Amino acid sequence: MLLYNYLFIPVLFVFFKIAGLFNSKIKQGVADRKNLFEQLAEKSDSIDRNKKLVWVHSASLGEFEQAKPIIEKLKKEYGVNILVSFFSPSGYRNSIKYPHADVITYLPLDSLKNMKKFVDITKPDILILMRYDIWPNLVKYVNEKNIPSFIVDATMRDKSKRKLPLVKQLHKNIYKNFTKILTVSETDLKSFKDFDLPDDKLRAVGDTRFDRVYQKSLLAKGKKLFVDGFFENKKVFVFGSSWESDEDVVIPAFLKILKYDKNAVMIIAPHEPTVLNLEKIEHTLTGKAKFIRFSSLNNYKDENVIIIDSIGILLTLYYYADIAYVGGSFKQGIHNVLEPAVYGPPVMFGPKIENSQEAIYLSKTNGGILIRNKKEMYRNLRYLLSKDGKRKEIGDSAKQYVLNNIGATERILEEIVKYLIK
């Protein structure tokens, strides 16, 4: 901890100051933290102190999505106050109006002074850290204050860098301070045992991502992005979270499909729907297929490609899919394959899936199809569009995978509530 406090934290502080001059996201995070403690004290004073306060910390927006089933169930069934904190601006800025939290704030840099001040102002009854954003001084001080703490949706690969000789002892000291570490699988639980943790500190409970995707899918079915009958007699291929490297493989294959199937429709949702990215996609399609932007859908005249020029609707778009492709998998790492799988279309993706146990599972079973190049993309897409029975079989397998893994939220609450009602 001496190296951490007297070398790592000061270096990290200087890094953020310098990096903020060149990186707009880091600059925003530094600026937003100005007067953090004054604002935190004001927000904390406004909550009902007759209720217990549960503090849920997420690194960013993705981890916060996994926290929402827990937060919403705690709020509904136990009437607690909820404090939500983030390290990144993307999480904080996109969640500032989240209705189920009583306090929403940034986490300060993990100096012992900062963490003592944060905890003493907020006085949480329980701390929940999502996945991997673990800060040593925070965990140490919470333990000293006898505040129960949990890691939720915890994962640990056998070859994790946390097990390297120089940092393993640090992580041993961190993990022993937690009340309970709740892992997504038995495999992860066994891997955590390499840190000499007692059995009663570990429990495999599952992954709340399955619960969240299922929860959101029920709401999505009630949203009408397209009028009833819009896709009648058509086969819909939803190309979600596309990057240019995905588009280079998928779009040519779909254009070739149109030579044989005029009723095929592709809905393409770029990962970043900037003006430049939208225009690049349109340039690729010009003269080869009729296309329209989603914002102009009132003028729809049987175009074969619909380009999504807004954000926040991808999960609902997958509801309309006969086949889905999840992007990121030709670039740096695949996006969430559970979002389409919950509705039951076959799920396709590129080769870079090491970051997703779900994609790996689907590729090894009957629910997903791994694509390596344009030829494979075209061949598989044409096969699935022409074989209704096979398409349904693969899609049903993907959906069943999601349904079989629902329930982590309930098991997590079983552990948390033991300390909440003391």
Largest sheet: 7 strands, parallel
- Order of strands, main sheet, comes to 3-2-1-4-5-6-7
CATH superfamily of the largest domain: 3-Deoxy-D-manno-octulosonic-acid transferase, N-terminal domain
Give the proportion of residues in helices. Answer: 40-55%
What is the overall silhouette?
globular
Q: What is the architecture of the largest domain at the second tier of CATH?
A: 3-Layer(aba) Sandwich
What does this protein structure show overall?
- This protein is α/β, with parallel strands linked by helices and about 425 residues long.
- Strand 8 (about 235-240), helix 11 and strand 9 form a beta-alpha-beta unit.
- The model has no long low-confidence stretch (mean pLDDT about 95).
- Helix content is about 45%, strand content about 15%.
- The protein has 2 domains: about 20-205 and about 405-420, Rossmann fold; about 220-405, Rossmann fold, CATH 3.40.50.
- The longest helix has 18 residues, at about 1-20.
- The strands form 2 sheets. The protein has a 7-stranded parallel sheet, with helices on both faces.
- The chain is globular.
